[in-house]
């Protein structure tokens, strides 16, 4: 395991100390143009926001974006070429591009700013370009430079990773939208100025999760794939690499079912995981999580009743304090377990 593994684990753990040094362990940065050191902190923050988004998107899935999956290079041969890997690449590369682009618009870097190249030109009926359009080209360049340079191999896996890095960057562009401001006499909106703005990163995450769901498999000769990081990884372009598929996520290997622990694959398994049932305000996918994580993996759903306390019956006293009672209430949580065990166990828990 090399420096990159270290980097990705560090990013996942969100510590404050790694940031400055993490990307400089990459040879490229030590030997490469000094200027790029300017961006390392922001690049690491961007990658971190990608990882956080990955954890959010997969929180109630069997594979939940674990730390050990967060490496962005092929130099560990053990790493897989599954659709999960494709998501990690796309979201990380998008995260870096998103953060750097925002930084430009905020004026955080001397050498980039808003994209004002079209300002003053007519954009369409009743509107002209104006204001601060996010400068995605700059963000794209920095993301490509940093994230793609982690890819040292030349084989199929490397090509797959580079493709997915790029798909992530294309997603940032694809989700941009026009935002407008009205002008004209007393807000009549007879003329508008508009600019292009990045989507919220959450929206990016949703978009890429949908891409993940319909990712394309590239059929390959198994023996070649196993040869790993070797020169014989030449391969013919397949449909998945045709221009029409450039924005899609691609993968080479089917995923394991992620149900059972398999340390050689780095799979944790779902035993002990929490799932959601009967919760208010959950998406259909979340409500199905107990089935997906437990039952479909041959595990039982165990209900644990947890006592929680929270403030309640708050009263306002003149003047000026608020007094509340502490109410205790029972919260049911659900976990995947192997044995039926005691159906209901009591545990002291903390407040929501
Ligand atoms: C870039 O933006 C992030 C927040 O999105 C901020 O924390 C970071 O400090 C910015 N980088 C620079 C160089 O200002
Ligand atoms: C782990 O996965 C590998 C590769 O699929 C398989 O050969 C092995 O039998 C698995 N080990 C366990 C304990 O399931
Ligand atoms: C339910 O969730 C949505 C978004 O996930 C949120 O906008 C809404 O306020 C939530 N409603 C309640 C009652 O919590």
UniProtKB/TrEMBL annotation:
<dbReference type="GO" id="GO:0005109">
    <property type="term" value="F:frizzled binding"/>
</dbReference>
<dbReference type="InterPro" id="IPR034312">
    <property type="entry name" value="Protein_Wnt-8A/8C"/>
</dbReference>
<comment type="similarity">
    <text>Belongs to the Wnt family.</text>
</comment>
<keyword id="KW-0325">Glycoprotein</keyword>
<dbReference type="GO" id="GO:0005125">
    <property type="term" value="F:cytokine activity"/>
</dbReference>
<keyword id="KW-0449">Lipoprotein</keyword>
<dbReference type="InterPro" id="IPR043158">
    <property type="entry name" value="Wnt_C"/>
</dbReference>
<keyword id="KW-0879">Wnt signaling pathway</keyword>
<dbReference type="GO" id="GO:0045165">
    <property type="term" value="P:cell fate commitment"/>
</dbReference>
<dbReference type="InterPro" id="IPR013301">
    <property type="entry name" value="Wnt8"/>
</dbReference>
<keyword id="KW-0732">Signal</keyword>
<keyword id="KW-0964">Secreted</keyword>
<dbReference type="GO" id="GO:0048561">
    <property type="term" value="P:establishment of animal organ orientation"/>
</dbReference>
<dbReference type="GO" id="GO:0005615">
    <property type="term" value="C:extracellular space"/>
</dbReference>
<dbReference type="GO" id="GO:0032880">
    <property type="term" value="P:regulation of protein localization"/>
</dbReference>
<protein>
    <recommendedName>
        <fullName>Protein Wnt</fullName>
    </recommendedName>
</protein>
<dbReference type="GO" id="GO:0000902">
    <property type="term" value="P:cell morphogenesis"/>
</dbReference>
<dbReference type="InterPro" id="IPR018161">
    <property type="entry name" value="Wnt_CS"/>
</dbReference>
<dbReference type="Pfam" id="PF00110">
    <property type="entry name" value="wnt"/>
</dbReference>
<dbReference type="GO" id="GO:0007492">
    <property type="term" value="P:endoderm development"/>
</dbReference>
<keyword id="KW-0217">Developmental protein</keyword>
<dbReference type="GO" id="GO:0060070">
    <property type="term" value="P:canonical Wnt signaling pathway"/>
</dbReference>
<dbReference type="GO" id="GO:0009949">
    <property type="term" value="P:polarity specification of anterior/posterior axis"/>
</dbReference>
<keyword id="KW-0272">Extracellular matrix</keyword>
<dbReference type="GO" id="GO:0030182">
    <property type="term" value="P:neuron differentiation"/>
</dbReference>
<comment type="function">
    <text>Ligand for members of the frizzled family of seven transmembrane receptors.</text>
</comment>
<dbReference type="GO" id="GO:0010085">
    <property type="term" value="P:polarity specification of proximal/distal axis"/>
</dbReference>
<dbReference type="InterPro" id="IPR005817">
    <property type="entry name" value="Wnt"/>
</dbReference>
<feature type="signal peptide">
    <location>
        <begin position="1"/>
        <end position="22"/>
    </location>
</feature>
<keyword id="KW-1015">Disulfide bond</keyword>
